[in-house]
Specification:
Elements: E1 5-7, H1 11-15, E2 30-33, E3 38-43, E4 52-58, E5 74-76, H2 87-92, E6 94-99, E7 101-106, E8 113-119, E9 125-133, E10 139-147, E11 158-160, H3 168-172, H4 179-185, E12 194-198
Parallel strand pairs: 4-10, 5-10
Antiparallel strand pairs: 1-2, 1-7, 3-4, 6-9, 7-8, 8-12, 9-10, 10-11
């Protein structure tokens, strides 16, 4: 799964790679991003417009899902295209969630040991996401997950679906809705690029944006 991540790279470092226009506004570095908060995302409304960066609510609940309907933060790659809850968003409302890494907890230790997982070269990551209009008119999103690969598998059995650079443009294409075509043009990054290390249990308490000490090796 993915229930906590960090985004501290400067805006141009990830926005330019996703094809979004450069803006002068600086984003506040966040070293401990929890669910149920506004997070930075990239989406594209039409082929005539470039992708743009905006804030989406991390929690997916379509407008038509009333009352106590679930508000998942993740959607499984194996079923996102066919699930009644997610398939409309998968076809038309895909987004990217930029991150510098994410946290998982090793359940084999007592207490559970948190790890920070990222690229070996420390380049930003792009999680595949979907979004929907919520009951209040705002947009909520979920991060797509897949079975853990490479080094990440040593910590947890699931991980975010991280797209390679060539997949960013087709993933954001609102006119690309065929499931088989998407499978052929969208790919996750090489598992060999992923590394991880144990970090302080301070990350267990998502109070504010945190600081760089949260990702230092414990």
């Amino acid at each position: 799964m993915c229930g906590r991540f960090a985004l501290y790279s400067a805006y141009p470092k990830f926005a330019t790679k996703a094809g979004a226009p450069t803006i002068s506004e600086e984003l506040t570095p966040r070293y401990n991003v929890p669910p149920g908060t506004w997070i930075t995302a990239i989406r594209r409304l039409s082929e005539d417009e470039p992708p743009h960066v905006e804030e989406l609510w991390w929690g997916y609940k379509p407008r038509w899902a009333k009352g106590k309907a679930s508000q998942p933060i993740n959607a499984r790659a194996e079923t996102v295209a066919t699930s009644g809850y997610f398939k409309a968003a998968f076809q038309k409302h895909r987004c990217l969630i930029p991150a510098d890494g994410w946290y998982e907890w090793d359940k084999t230790t007592t207490p559970k040991q948190p790890h920070f997982i990222c690229r070996e070269d420390r380049e930003p990551l792009f999680f595949a996401g979907i979004y929907t209009e919520r009951e209040d008119g705002s947009l909520g999103c979920a991060i797509i997950t897949e079975p853990a690969r490479g080094s990440a598998h040593k910590v947890h059995d699931r991980m975010p679906l991280i797209l390679d650079d060539e997949s960013l443009e087709p993933w954001l294409d609102p006119d690309l809705s065929d499931q088989e075509t998407l499978r052929n043009v969208v790919h996750h990054i090489d598992a060999g690029l992923i590394t991880h290390w144990p970090v302080s249990t301070k990350v267990n308490r998502p109070n504010g944006p945190g600081d760089e000490s949260l990702i230092n090796p414990a």
